[in-house]
Structure formats: C-alpha cells, structure tokens
TrEMBL record:
Keywords assigned: ATP-binding, Carbohydrate metabolism, Kinase, Nucleotide-binding, Transferase
EC numbers on record: 2.7.1.217
Similarity field: Belongs to the four-carbon acid sugar kinase family.
InterPro entries: 4-carb_acid_sugar_kinase_N (IPR010737), 4-carb_acid_sugar_kinase_N_sf (IPR037051), NBD_C (IPR031475), NBD_C_sf (IPR042213), OtnK (IPR050007)
Database matches in Gene3D superfamilies: Four-carbon acid sugar kinase, nucleotide binding domain (3.40.980.20), Putative sugar-binding, N-terminal domain (3.40.50.10840)
This protein's name: 3-oxo-tetronate kinase
Catalytic activity line of the entry: 3-dehydro-L-erythronate + ATP = 3-dehydro-4-O-phospho-L-erythronate + ADP + H(+); 3-dehydro-D-erythronate + ATP = 3-dehydro-4-O-phospho-D-erythronate + ADP + H(+)
EC top class, as a word: transferase
Length: 422
C-alpha cells in the first residue's frame, strides 16, 4: 500500500470528520484507532487517518504518539502528512498543536509548516490570523467556556507562538488570493526569516485548494478538515489520486438496540440533547454523585436495560458552563473530565453487552474513551449525517457508530444519525 496522504488526528471525532471530508473529495479512506497493529488487514486506500487521543494529554506524550503514527504512515509511503487538529484550535499554552507540529516538522526535515484550522463548510474562517467561529471571533464564541481548553485569544499567530519552540508567521489572505506559488514563496520567505510555522488565512473553499497545493510542496502540514479538503483536491488535480465515488454500501443492515451517549458540553450538543427528549428517553448523569464515588454508571445501565428493547435511549453527562465550572472547582478540571469519561466508557461497554450495535457518541474525548473501551480497531466511512460527521462501520465486527464533534450537527442530530444506521 502506498498512501497519497497520511493523517494523524488528535482526537477520534476529529478523525472521522477528516475521513468524511477526504472520502467526499474522492480519496478512498480508512480511519484507524491508534497506530494500527502490523497485522491489521486494511483495504487498498489513498489515505489513512490514524486517530489518537492526544489533544488533552501532556505535550511530551502527544509528541511521542504522533511520531509513532508518523513512522507507521511513512513506512507505508505516505506522500504527505497532515496533523489534523480542531477547527476551533482546541489547545492550551502547554500544547499540543505547537509541540507536535514542531516535532513532526523537524522529523520530516521541513523548514516551516503551514497551519490553518479554517473549515468554511462549518463556518470556521481565518482572516489576518484571527479565527472566526460563525460570525464571532473565537474568544467570543462558546469555545471560551470549553471544559478542557477554554479559548480566550482569537489571534492564532499569538496562540501558536505561545505553545511552539518555533517562531510563527502569517500568510495573509492577499497572498492566498495570488495562488499556490505565492503561498509557497511566502513560506520560503518566512522560513528564511527564522519562522518555523505560519498561520494561513482562508475564508472560502477556493482558498483551501490554494493552501492544499502549497502544503503539498512540503512533507507535513497542520490543520482541520478544511486543509484536508484542500490537500485532497490538490492530490486529485495533480493526478496523484484517481477520484473514487464515496462508498454507499457498507454492508447489510445490523438492526437491534440503539443508544446515544453525550459527554460534550458544547452549546450545540446541549441543544441536541434537549431536542432528543421529544423522541427518546434521556437519562442525565449526576456528575456530583459520580465524582463522590456513587455508581452512576451502574444506575444508568439499569435504567437503559429497562428501556432499550422499546427503542433508542440517550445517556448524557453534559451540562452548561456554570454547572461545569462548579464541578471543576470542586474536583479539578482533569480529574472531573477523566472520571466522567471513564463512566461513559463503562456505560458504553454495558450497552454493547445489552446488545447495542448502533451507537452515537457526542464529544471527542468522550468518543475516545468509549472507542478505546470497546477496542474497535478501524472504521470504514459511510454516508454523511451532518457536515463533519459520517456514519462509521467497524472493520472487525457488525457495528454502526457515529462520533460527533461537540459543536457539529443539526438540532435533531441524534435522530438523524440513527436514521442512517439500519
Ligand atoms: N457535567 C460535566 N461537568 C464537567 N465536565 C464534564 C461534564 N460532562 C462532561 N464533562 C467532560 O467535558 C469534556 C468534554 O469533552 P469532549 O471532547 O467529550 O466534548 P467536546 O470538547 O465538546 O467535543 P469535541 O472535542 O469533539 O469538540 C470531557 O472530558 C467530559 O468528561
Ligand atoms: O475540526 C473540528 O472541529 C472537529 O473535527 C474536531 O476536531 C472537534 O473535536
């Protein structure tokens, strides 16, 4: 297998978002969970997206895991490596976007890395280095209250510089408008000036195609699915990939019980849970009881067992910013997050033991905990439920999944997802 594109994603929902984008752009793509075992049978593909759970772990561990993924992809001949980060640049001053980009760039022997989280399809745009989420700057968006990485600075040149060893420059929209050669020349000029990374502006899909073509002149780049789209288009345009139709048939219906789990506290997910209450039973975990050591997971499973035969159920830990702040003040941010993720993973395992084969999970860290606990090695990518969220089918057993990034999906996302999982 010789890969046109190797991708390393810093969380599992982000990985399926990217796999969805690449598939839609004509690249035959597989999403693996972690660095695959050497004996994992994979179909012939153009791109592999290795999903890591490295967004919110210590930077040195994120670097080590990303390097391991890069080595696996390079050993399969990957022509270019994309480090997939969140379109809202989720990170802290400790990392991990800067440290991982620095390390992958150094290993690849590149002087500078192009970096952009722009993804216009989901209203993430970058102008003069400032990230906008919809109509507002990042620091005024709901991301300012993210439970793990509150984003309080919209200027990504500053954000990335604080977490990088390298100095960071800007490729502005005026340069992008001049085309891929101009962007590539600007990258060279910034590198000569001592910069090791450059935030690139993009507001429209056509900007992504320019950035993708420029990024392909180097070994690595860092970005969200928008840059993935640009790279895919550039690979097709250069004749390095023959575009394939997206797989519409991932196999026979599976049927049986279905369930949804939500650990994301994003505004979008909170609204989707409220809407789901009209069409399925919803159980809300009590984080205070859970963190006090009560068996909230066991109680939720007993609740689910009584209802699962009648139709889908939803179990959520999600809460609004005040409640999250109160839990974190009492137990610490990471301890609270990990304990809730562990409970969600246990619930997922219990649901599968009850026969659930159609599972929707909201939240990247939550999805990571769930998928790890279920030991799912890899997914094929099916139809798109909403921008950035495909239906996934496990390669080693009959199971449908959807791993939803916290902010993605329409108001009826949970019902929409289950409708595409026969
Ligand atoms: N009620 C709660 N109080 C405090 N923390 C919570 C609560 N519910 C969930 N969490 C934690 O908040 C974090 C949410 O992160 P997660 O990545 O799952 O969602 P997200 O950030 O919205 O999604 P994405 O990364 O896909 O954008 C997890 O660590 C989860 O355990
Ligand atoms: O890029 C995004 O917004 C998503 O794929 C994601 O990574 C959210 O966790």
């Amino acid at each position: 297998m010789t890969l046109a594109l190797g991708c390393i994603a810093d969380d599992y929902t982000g990985a399926s978002d990217l796999a969805n984008t690449l598939t839609k752009a004509g690249l035959r793509t597989v999403q693996t969970i972690g660095v695959p075992a050497d004996d994992l049978a994979l179909p012939e593909v153009d791109a592999v997206v290795v999903s890591l759970k490295s967004r919110s772990i210590p930077a040195d561990e994120a670097v080590a895991r990303s390097r391991e993924a890069a080595a696996w992809l390079n050993a399969r001949g990957a022509g270019h490596l994309l480090f997939k980060v969140c379109s809202t640049f989720d990170s802290t001053d400790a990392g991990n976007i800067g440290p991982v980009t620095d390390a992958l760039r150094a290993d690849a022997g590149d002087a500078i890395a192009l970096v952009t989280p722009a993804f216009p399809e989901t209203a993430r745009t970058v102008y003069l280095g400032h990230l906008f989420v919809g109509a507002v700057p990042l620091a005024e968006s709901p991301l300012k209250d993210h439970p793990l990485n509150p984003m309080r600075d919209s200027n990504l040149v500053r954000v990335l510089a604080r977490q990088s060893r390298a100095e960071v420059g800007l490729i502005d929209l005026a340069t992008v408008a001049q085309g891929a050669d101009a962007v590539s020349a600007r990258l060279d000029a910034l590198a000569t000036d001592g910069k090791g990374a450059a935030i690139a502006d993009a507001v429209l899909d056509r900007d992504l195609a320019v950035l993708g073509a420029a990024a392909l002149t180097r070994r690595i780049s860092t970005g969200a699915s928008g840059l993935g789209l640009g790279l895919a288009r550039a690979l097709v345009a250069a004749g390095r990939v023959a575009p394939a139709a997206a797989e519409s048939d991932l196999g026979p219906a599976i049927g049986g019980p279905a369930a949804c789990l939500a650990g994301s506290c994003s505004q979008a997910t909170l609204g989707q849970i409220a809407r789901a209450e009209a069409v399925m039973p919803v159980r809300r975990l009590d984080p205070a009881r859970l963190l006090a050591g009560e068996d909230e997971a066991g109680a939720a499973l007993a609740w689910a067992k009584e209802r699962i035969g009648d139709g889908p159920v939803l179990i959520a830990s999600s809460a609004g910013p005040e409640e999250v702040a109160a839990v974190q003040a009492r137990h610490g941010r990471d301890a609270a997050g990990h304990a809730i993720e562990a409970a969600m993973a246990r619930i997922a395992e219990g649901l599968v033991a009850l026969g659930v084969r159609r599972l929707v999970v909201a939240g990247g860290e939550t999805s990571g905990a769930v998928v790890d606990r279920l030991r799912l090695p890899a997914f094929r990518v099916g139809p798109e439920i909403a921008a950035g969220v495909p239906v996934l089918r496990t390669t080693d057993r009959d199971m449908w999944l959807a791993l939803k990034s916290g902010n993605f999906g329409g108001p009826d996302f949970f019902a929409d997802a289950l409708a595409l999982m026969p």
